[in-house]
Each structure stands twice: as structure tokens, then as C-alpha cells.
Design a protein that fits this description.
This protein is α/β, with parallel strands linked by helices. The protein has one domain: Divalent-metal-dependent TIM barrel enzymes (TIM Barrel). The chain is built from 13 helices and 8 strands. The chain has helices at about 5-20, 50-60, 70-80, 80-90, 115-125, 145-160, 175-185, 200-205, 210-215, 235-245, 255-265, 280, 285-305; strands at about 30-35, 65, 95-100, 130-135, 165, 190-195, 220-225, 270. An 8-stranded parallel beta sheet has the order 1-2-3-4-5-6-7-8. Helix 3 packs across helix 4 (about 80-90). The longest helix has 19 residues, at about 285-305. The radius of gyration is 18 Å and the shape is globular. The model is unreliable at about 10-25 (pLDDT under 50).
Length: about 300
């Protein structure tokens, strides 16, 4: 580990041990979005998941948010899905979330369930709580039919003991928190929840919406993917999202206020750092994992200082 990185890691850890923390989110139970350690997360290679597991374990994370794509790619090197699962869970890491189910909004269930069932089966095998659902469609989804489909999907997920966490993507058919919440609420499904991502929170149309967040039942906020965003947005939001996010506390997102707000409303989401950044990934998985953890813990420590001070 470089001397500069060592200093930043020490600073992050020191903030956590020095101050009395008043929040509800589990402070020392970070779940790393493992795909972020890959320079090209869409092509992890047969050894990509092993790299994620080793780096996450060495950097002190409690678990991984696992892409189904990466688990399937690892079969090439480890031989069987069972061997892949043993590699992950045998390390002591937990897998609370399986990512990312994308065709859910386009199919009539029955006809489309074959494309979603493998997510449920994998989530059950890994002992996950939920499966993440997103849409990459550009046209804004209509609330009523999307909610109906989500409700059907949640009924099937319940058969596996699972929930569905819906994430909004600023360029997609679910572009903002308002749309995502309306779909979740209208679905009527008790196991439907929300995932809030720091980059998406900042880049959603209209920008951050703390007043709306205050109205959402805290138990519906299941995952908080903490990351930061540059002050100036790029022309291609998808490329920026997957290649140039910033470390927590090093961008334009007011993460301290967001963490405090989540604490104030009583939300207890999984905290899952998700910093897609090609330059950081190219520095090496272990170094990046340490750096992301230190930056995350520094933000959490600042957010929970006694008296609410930012400094």
C-alpha cells in the first residue's frame, strides 16, 4: 500500500474510533460493490470474482454485492457454480444483494419469468436478502403497468424468501427517486424496496430531493450505494456513471447531509460503496478497496459527529 493511501486509510479509521456515532446504519458492516474493482466490469474475466473476494476480505469489508454476470464468468476458472459459491462464502464474506435484473419491466410474467428465475435461484443459494432491479429503457415507464409487473415479480421473489430493490438511473425509464418510489408504493408489495445511489441522487432530473426522501417509510430504503460525483457532468451520463465516479467526500454530492437525513428518518440500509472509476480500478483491486473503504468511513464519521458539526 502506498504511503499516501496508508495516511488516508488511517484518517478514515481514526474518525470512526474518535467520535461517538449516533446513526442507525451499521457503521462497520460495509458491503463492497465488487464490480467496481474491475477496470471493465462488463468483462470481468474468469478470475475477476476471485480478485474481488480477495480484495474485499483483505480490506475488511463484511461482504459483496454480487453481479450474477461475474459469478457465472468465474465458473470458467473454478469449475462449477458450487465451487464459485464456496469461494465467496467460504471467505467469510456475506452476499446480501444479487445484481442486476434488467428485463423485469419488459415482460408479462409467465412469459418473461425464465429470464428472472436465475436471479432468484442465485440469491437463494448465496443467502441474499434481495435482488436488484433496474431498467435500461430510455422511455419513462408508466407507473401503473410498471407497478403491476413489479408486484408480480415480488410475489415470485417471496417464494424464495427474497425482496426486490428498485434502483433509479437518471438516463432511464425510472430516472429519479419520485418515479421509483411511486412504482414501489403502487405495487402494493411488502417486499418491494428502494436502492439509493449517491451518484444517481446527484444526477437525477431536478437534482437531490431531500423533502421527498423524508416522506418515504424508512424500512423501504434497503440499500445505500455511497459514492460521489464530479461537479461538472459529462455529456454521456452512462459513461460517466461507469467510468468516472468520485470517492465519497471528494465530489459535489452532499453525502454528509444525505447520511444524516437517512439516520434522522430511521433508515437502516445496507451501506454499499460503489465507486466506478477506471483510473482507481487500474491502480489495483486491493489498493482501491482500501481507499474506497477509508473514504466511505471518513464521510460516515463526519456525518455522525456529536452536535452535527461538519468539520
Amino acid at each position: 500500500m502506498s504511503s499516501a493511501l496508508s495516511g488516508r486509510v488511517a484518517t478514515g479509521y481514526a474518525l470512526l474510533s474518535k467520535f461517538s456515532l449516533r446513526g442507525h446504519m451499521p457503521q462497520n458492516d460495509l458491503i463492497l460493490c465488487g464490480a467496481t474493482l474491475m477496470p471493465d466490469p462488463t468483462h470481468p474475466g474468469p478470475n475477476g470474482l476471485e480478485t474481488q473476494v480477495e480484495a474485499a476480505k483483505a480490506a475488511g469489508y463484511a461482504g459483496l454485492s454480487l453481479w450474477r454476470l461475474h459469478a457465472e464468468a468465474a465458473v470458467e476458472s473454478l469449475g462449477t457454480p458450487e465451487a464459485v459459491r464456496e469461494k465467496v462464502l467460504g471467505s467469510g464474506l456475506r452476499v446480501p444483494l444479487i445484481e442486476a435484473m434488467m428485463p423485469w419491466d419488459e415482460h408479462d410474467f409467465g412469459a418473461g419469468m425464465t429470464s428472472t428465475e436465475p436471479f432468484f435461484e442465485m440469491a437463494q443459494d448465496y443467502g441474499a436478502n434481495s435482488v436488484l432491479a433496474v431498467t435500461m429503457k430510455r422511455e419513462k415507464l408508466e407507473i401503473a403497468p410498471a407497478a403491476k409487473r413489479l408486484g408480480e415479480l415480488c410475489m415470485r421473489a417471496a417464494d424464495f424468501g427474497l425482496g426486490i430493490a428498485t434502483e433509479f438511473l437518471p438516463w432511464s425509464g425510472i430516472p429519479d427517486l419520485e418515479t421509483a418510489w411511486r412504482i414501489v408504493e403502487t405495487s402494493g408489495a411488502e417486499n418491494a424496496s428502494l436502492l439509493i445511489d449517491g451518484w444517481h441522487w446527484q444526477r437525477q432530473p431536478g437534482g437531490p430531493c431531500p423533502d421527498l426522501l423524508r416522506t418515504i417509510p424508512p424500512e423501504r430504503i434497503e440499500v445505500f450505494q455511497i459514492c460521489d460525483a464530479a461537479a461538472v457532468r459529462k455529456d454521456d451520463p452512462l459513461a460517466e456513471c461507469l467510468e468516472d465516479r468520485r470517492l465519497p467526500g471528494e465530489g459535489a454530492v452532499d453525502l454528509v447531509s444525505l447520511v444524516r437525513l437517512l439516520d434522522q428518518i430511521g433508515a437502516r440500509p445496507i451501506i454499499a460503496p460503489e465507486v466506478f472509476n477506471v483510473k482507481l480500478a487500474n491502480s489495483g483491486a486491493l489498493e482501491m478497496a482500501h481507499l474506497v473503504r477509508a473514504s466511505t468511513e471518513r464521510v460516515l464519521g463526519l456525518a455522525r459527529l456529536e452536535g452535527g458539526a461538519d468539520e
